[in-house]
TrEMBL record, chain A:
Subcellular location: Cell membrane
Lineage: Bacteria, Pseudomonadati, Pseudomonadota, Alphaproteobacteria, Acetobacterales
Species assigned in the record: Acetobacter fallax
Record Pfam families: FecCD
Main location: membrane
Protein name from the UniProt record: Iron chelate uptake ABC transporter family permease subunit
Keywords: Cell membrane, Membrane, Transmembrane, Transmembrane helix, Transport
Cited InterPro entries: ABC_BtuC-like (IPR037294), ABC_transptr_permease_BtuC (IPR000522)
Keyword Metal-binding annotated: no
Claim: Protease is one of the keywords in the record: no
TrEMBL record, chain B:
Function: Part of the ABC transporter complex HmuTUV involved in hemin import. Responsible for energy coupling to the transport system.
Source species of the chain: Acetobacter fallax
Protein name per its UniProtKB record: ATP-binding cassette domain-containing protein
Top-level taxonomy: Bacteria, Pseudomonadati, Pseudomonadota, Alphaproteobacteria, Acetobacterales
Matching InterPro entries: AAA+_ATPase, ABC_transporter-like_ATP-bd, ABC_transporter-like_CS, P-loop_NTPase
Domain ABC transporter per the UniProt entry, residue ranges: 8-238
Superkingdom as given in the UniProt entry: Bacteria
Keyword Nucleotide-binding: yes
Coiled coil: none
Keywords for the protein's UniProt record, in alphabetical order: ATP-binding, Nucleotide-binding, Translocase, Transport
GO molecular function, one term: ATP binding
């Protein structure tokens, strides 16, 4: 039941992703001879151009694409499953868990011992919160899931605040504050490899729920009668919770918390996909990638005394987008 | 009634919810080629029983069988291709176009080439073709009820189970939907509907099952089940009869003592 407008939308979004990804590689503070740098990169020659392209710009662009896509996708999946347009990947408490895990590595000084300690701590926090979420929400319904997510978010946020409160050196608390704002600066291919398995597995689980999400638009009884039981071990609920938690946890572990992408992107694309939640998934992945690639390009290129954090930019951009939706809603009543 | 018979059968089904017995030893058989009406006052357990019959809820005891095999043993997709379920219309619909909403009924069939014809026919039968490009949120209650029925019919399953499908319809549309059910039954499908309109139940159902407090209070032809005494006992109303149809006419005593 795919329609041509979907193909056109996906093609347009894909073109946007490719253009912004290429721009992220081509543009930066340092002017590069791109063909020469590419040549050196593939030949394995460690020239300045090859290092800037392969070790600075490529991982950053890849992370923007993967993390933006994951946040957009998980927002679309959660909004579809919970049938609540205000659902957001942060809702399940996994982002807060990942943030706490990372903050603990700052507190304990582990973050200073190895570049990997910080994302590994974030990943451990994310996995712990996934286990707690599944333990708490179990086979309950959507309300149980929301309550469990809210409880975990509050708990982890409180623990993060406590850690900040007790942190021994002002320098560490400054580092934590900066990390919590969300950024893609100074990430390497190691960060990409670290978050990739969780993102791939999580996104695959989330994409597999597309038809169940369509069936769920008329309620759980109808979905089940159409052959898509939302509960149970193989049901959509388990795949959504596990998938979004794994993928988003992996993202937050390497980038810090980046808000609003998961909330805003599905909102903007929903009217273009006929309000079918299943058809919204892939466009939301691409839309999230576009938004984060664009925001990160702004973060790199806007001249400020210290580089802007991309998480701050998405938050700044997200609020007016919602205001625009409110104004439209009031005008059209729809 | 045995669990070994063909059709869609419930045998000795009992269910407790929140410590209260909702269904108590209920047995019935939905046969192909007939319209089976499930009637009874509010709270009699009709909707719960429909969910059990559709395989959406497991009873505490008893069993539901489809053509002799346990319904619970069928894969969700096989079951969805056999039984279409239309719940009571509640809550607001998703803001998708009517044709998209009806096409949800074909989800169990993936990208089957027959989807397009099945959707077109279901919309034709329910008189919803003219609504196809309207968002479901802009429909009246009656229009939405017909669209939701089209969604259920689009699956072209041998068994259709519908919970109060005509509750929101005006008399003309209610008559047309009941006539459609009869026509579908004549073509060999099995239609099981919960009805509160006793007049239409008596006119259009081949058989009716009367539920009271989770137990079967009567089962058989409308004339045999919907007797004056049964209506008075179960519904607390006196009825009048016009050419075989039953018309609720007067309360016997106050409902719950409040009127």
């Amino acid at each position: 039941m795919t329609r041509h407008p979907d193909c056109r939308l996906v093609a347009a979004l894909l073109a946007g992703v490719i253009a912004l990804f290429a721009a992220a590689l081509l543009w930066g503070e340092t002017a590069l001879d791109i063909p020469a740098a590419l040549h050196d990169l593939f030949a394995g020659r460690p020239t300045i151009g090859a290092i800037i392209l392969g070790q600075l710009r490529l991982p950053r662009a890849l992370l923007a694409l993967l993390i933006g896509g994951t946040l957009g996708l998980s927002g679309a999946v959660l909004q579809g499953y919970l049938r609540n347009p205000l659902a957001d990947p942060g809702l399940l408490g996994v982002s807060s868990g990942a943030a706490l895990g990372a903050v603990v590595t700052f507190y304990t000084g582990l973050a200073a011992t190895s570049a990997l300690a910080l994302p590994a701590g974030g990943l451990a926090g994310a996995l712990l919160s996934v286990a707690m979420l599944i333990g708490l929400a179990g086979q309950g319904g959507t309300l149980t899931l929301l309550l469990a997510g809210t409880a975990l978010t509050s708990f982890f946020a409180a623990m993060t605040a406590l850690t900040l409160n007790l942190v021994p050196s002002p320098y560490a608390s400054f580092e934590i504050m900066h990390w919590l704002m969300g950024s893609l600066a100074d990430r390497t291919m190691t960060h990409v490899w670290l978050c990739l398995p969780g993102i791939v597995a999580g996104c695959a689980l989330m994409f597999s729920t597309a038809r169940t999400l369509d069936a769920l638009t008329l309620g759980e009884d109808v979905a089940e009668s159409l052959g898509f039981p939302p509960g149970g071990l193989s049901g959509a609920r388990t795949r959504i919770v596990l998938g979004s938690a794994l993928a988003v946890g992996s993202c937050v572990a390497v980038s810090g918390a980046i808000g609003f992408v998961g909330l805003v992107v599905p909102h903007l694309l929903r009217p273009l996909t006929g309000h079918r939640p299943g058809r919204l998934l892939f466009p939301s992945f691409l839309g999230g990638a576009i938004l984060l690639l664009f925001a990160d390009a702004l973060a790199r290129l806007i001249p400020t005394s210290s580089e802007l954090h991309v998480g701050v930019l998405t938050a700044i951009a997200g609020a007016p987008l919602f205001l625009w939706r409110v104004i439209r809603l009031r005008r059209t009543g729809s | 009634m045995s669990a070994e018979t063909g059709g869609l059968s419930a045998a000795n089904v009992s269910l407790r919810l929140g410590g209260r017995s909702v269904l108590n030893d209920v047995s019935l058989e939905a046969r192909q080629g007939e319209v089976l009406g499930l009637i009874g006052p509010n709270g009699a357990g009709k909707s719960t029983f429909l969910r059990v019959l559709a395989g959406l809820r497991q009873p505490d005891t008893g069993d539901v069988t489809l053509d002799g095999g346990r319904l619970a043993d069928l894969s969700p997709n096989r079951r969805a291709r056999q039984i279409a379920f239309m719940p009571q219309n509640g809550g607001s619909p998703p803001p998708m176009d009517v044709s998209d909403l009806v096409s949800l009924g074909r989800l169990p069939f993936g990208s089957d080439p027959a989807n397009r014809d099945a959707i077109a026919q279901a919309m034709e039968e329910t008189g919803t073709v003219s609504l196809k490009d309207r968002p479901a949120t802009a429909l009246s209650g009656g229009e939405l009820a017909r669209v939701l029925l089209a969604r259920a019919l689009a699956a072209e399953t041998p068994y259709l189970i519908a919970d109060e499908p005509i509750a929101a319809l005006d008399p003309a549309h209610a008559l047309s939907v009941m006539s459609l059910f009869c026509a579908l039954a004549r073509k060999g499908r099995s239609i099981t509907v919960v009805l509160h309109d006793l007049t239409l139940a008596a006119r259009f159902c081949d058989r009716v099952v009367l539920l009271q407090s989770g137990c079967i209070a009567g089962s058989g032809t409308p004339a045999g089940v919907m007797t004056d005494a049964a209506m008075r006992d179960v519904y607390n109303v006196d009825v009048r009869r016009v050419e075989g149809a039953v018309i609720p006419w007067r309360l016997v005593r106050g409902v719950d003592g409040k009127i």
